[in-house]
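Office hours follow-up: a student asked to see two folded examples consecutively, so here they are.
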Amino acid sequence: MKPTHHPEGSADRKGKVREYIEAFTVALLIALIVRTLVIQAFKIPSSSMEDTLLIGDHIFVNKFLYGYHIPFTKGRVLRFRAPRRGDILVFVFPEDKSKDFIKRAIGVPGDTVEVREKRVFVNGQLLEENYVRFADGDTIDGFIRARDNLPPVKVPSGKLFVMGDNRDRSYDSRFWGFVDMDAVIGKAMFIYFSVDWNRDVRWTEVWRYPEIVRWGRIGHLLH
């Protein structure tokens, strides 16, 4: 009978493969935890928040600031603070749960919001908005009339009134009502990458790719 031979090299290779698998699994779990509880990346697909956010901006969203919503319950746990006026929020769109929207919080619970000739009043006071843009148009996406006037509405408990910075191109609370606090995913933090796909650069011109990057927007804090 021949003695059984166990090559040391084979055992070492198996050990290294196991180590790689374990390291990858741990890294994946950490990434999932971070994405679920800490921060999440989003891409801006529309012009509704121009000029604060441009199409092609990639942002990080703080998911722990407002706490966590436990499914099938009301309220949030481990909350540092509630959303404030002026916060840029990412939330689940009330009319289509498969979509995430990004808008600015204009009214919080208890506030009365009114729009007069495109000017926003909160609790009777004109809101100072140096971030607002008006596109001088009367349609949004070609079929929804912009709403320049809105009678006073009071924000209920547990709700938010939100609007896009590009007022003539934003589909927001003026049209479909309030956002539930529990639908808020988090607060937009900063732009980590930005690409201008309108630049005349062909996909085959790899050496020109840096031209489509908006380098000056990278790292820009959102407020």
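And the second, which I mentioned at the end of office hours:
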Amino acid sequence: MPMAENTWKRSSLPREPGELGKPLVDPAEWYPKDILANDNWIYRLSKIEIAEIEAAVAAVESQGLDIKDVSRDNFPLPTLAPRLQEMQDELMEGRGIVLIKGIPIERMNRLQYAAAFWGVSVYIGRALSQNRQGHLLGHVKDIGGDYAKTRGYKTRSHMAFHCDQADVLGLGCIHNAKKGGEHLVCSAVTLYNEMLRRRPDLAKELGWKFYRQLSTEKHPGQKDPWIRQGIFNFHEGYFAVRGVSSALRKGQSLPGVPKFTSAQEEALQMFRDIAPELAIEVPIDHGDISYVMNHVTLHSRTDFEDWPEPERRRHLLRLWMNTGDRRPLPPEIHKFTQGIFDETTEFVTPLDAE
């Protein structure tokens, strides 16, 4: 079967400095009908690029390298590397979303695919610890967790639109669910502009620094049980979103935290209502890699029914990545894009969920 033509292309739309209460001009603004009208955001690997990845994976195996020790130096991709730099640029300054197709996962075991996912991703950013276990390589997999008591990636539950604590989220698909589990993404820039168009008073309400309850996961130097962040943030002319997550509602139970005003409640609900209207389902299939930039996009997952066979169950590898302060961020957001760890954390790259 001939390989599909690669139609990936950098966004050419302009970006202008933004401020709360005014419409945003940003290439990360897109509507579902527009982004789905073409494949400019999808990168299809060529035969040469696939061969480079497979050769680099073989070198990792032959040297006995731990996944966390894979770097640009020992995972050379001479043809693909310049394109990956363009993809990082597109994530940080463009649409904020890229999907890579063509990694031949059917020819790979778990270690080989993990090495491919990690090796490609080191050209996008530096991996961060995602939990107090020091996992640099994460696993989105139902291990029987209760969403009310644990983090959503360990469950099969629906997850509302949110953004992760990193510049870039990377997902590598090992298996999809039997039914459901769709990976949904919406443009937070579009969401902001839509709220501003429909109800400018409510859009401005989301610039207030809300109290978010922190989980038991540790961040360097953090003592308070909460962090204050706006939903719509502007810093040095750059926009950054934070999701309307359960952490906001949980923050309401903390001592000394003021209750939501009626206007804030209405604004938060409008945010929740509009996000699904603006979302696309990312067609991530076996072997594909999805990257989204957390400061300009929101992502969600539908609940799912899994396969009965353990080896077929929904399983995505996950990376949180820092891109080296490429984008100005408010201090209260920047602090929480450095990973979850303390002085005792040992960083690891497990090959399955733990």
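Two things to take away from it. The first strand starts at residue 42 and ends at 44. The chain has one domain: 37-337.
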